[in-house]
Amino acid sequence: VVFDSLSKGKLRYSQDYECHIGGAETNTAVALVKLNHSAGWISKLGNDEFGAKIKNTVAGEGVEVCQVLMDDNAPTGIFFRQRLENGESRNFYYRKGSAASTMTPDLIDLNYLKSGKILHISGITPGLSKEAEETTEYAMAAAKESGLLVSFDPNLRLKVWPLEQARRTTNRLLKYADIVFPGQEEGRLLYGTEEPDEIARQMKAYGAGTVVVKIGEQGCIGYENKEKCYSKEIGR
Fold first, then answer.
1. Contact 124, 155 (CB under 8 A)
2. What is the DSSP string of 74-90?
3. Counting Cβ atoms within 10 Å, is residue 30 exposed (0-12), middle (13-18) or buried (19+)?
4. How far apart are CA 192 and CA 211, in angstroms?
5. 110-114 — which CB contacts under 8 Å span 24+ positions?
6. Cβ neighbours of residue 129 under 8 Å, at least 6 residues apart?
7. Nearest CA among 146, 127, 142, 135 for reference residue 42
8. Which of 226, 225, 228 is nearest to 213 (CA)?
């Protein structure tokens, strides 16, 4: 769950917060349902009020949550968002030891996984713990072996894990991905470049057939086979 400060300035001065759920994977799942597709979410939440809030909210959007385990021994992760007067925002994560960080490969029901068409993974999950990293790779490998498309959003968050570990793990996981959604910032962190063509080239070298490079508010550029497509906002 996310606690957004309702006032601008450092959190030490904040008194009031808005509470809502956050998550790159759940956002994707909810968006797919709104586009008339079906989606299921595999995860682990604390068996607490925040866990109930997340599970109920995601289920209320039409996403299957039958593969979400409620953990009696670990809490639901939280983070606080600080907004400064100059428009900058900063997140403070409290996810170490959270239920999601204790995920292990036996969480993955292979029959359920194989019933899908696409497995979508965010790079935040493997950054939570060694166990979560192993679970992520297990799921991606199993999906690949079963003939599913594997979609991967690197979504690097250096407050979750160190850059060298993030770089090493991300590049290893890329070998399972069919579709990759990097941003320019991730290109800079991983390969030292924000040039979309070079980011796509680097990621395609691991085997991805489709790379979509996000260009912030301008939209994105897609690379598939030898074709290159621009979103309308870029207008080329």
1. yes
2. SPPPEEEEEE-TTS-EE
3. buried
4. 17
5. 110/142, 110/146, 112/40, 112/42, 112/66, 112/67, 113/42, 113/139, 113/142, 113/143, 113/146, 113/148, 114/146, 114/148
6. 96, 101, 102, 103
7. 135
8. 228
Q: Which one, of 69, 90, 72, lies nearest residue 80 by Cα?
A: 90
Pairing mode, if any, of strands 64-71 and 149-153? unpaired
The answer to whether the CB of 159 falls within 8 A of the CB of 171 is no
Q: What is the pTM of this model?
A: 0.91
Cβ distance 151 to 119 under 8 Å? yes
Looking at this protein, which amino acid is placed at residue 204?
K
Per-residue pLDDT 10s for the chain (236 aa) are 999 999 999 999 999 999 999 889 999 999 999 999 999 999 999 999 999 999 999 999 999 999 999 999 999 999 999 999 888 899 999 988 999 999 999 999 999 999 999 999 999 999 999 999 999 999 999 999 999 999 999 999 888 899 999 999 999 999 999 999 999 999 999 999 999 999 999 999 999 999 999 998 889 999 998 899 998 766 55
Which pair of structure tokens corresponds to residue 192?
A: 């030292």
User: What's at 152, amino acid-wise?
Assistant: F
As a whole number of angstroms, the distance between CA 85 and CA 78 comes to: 24
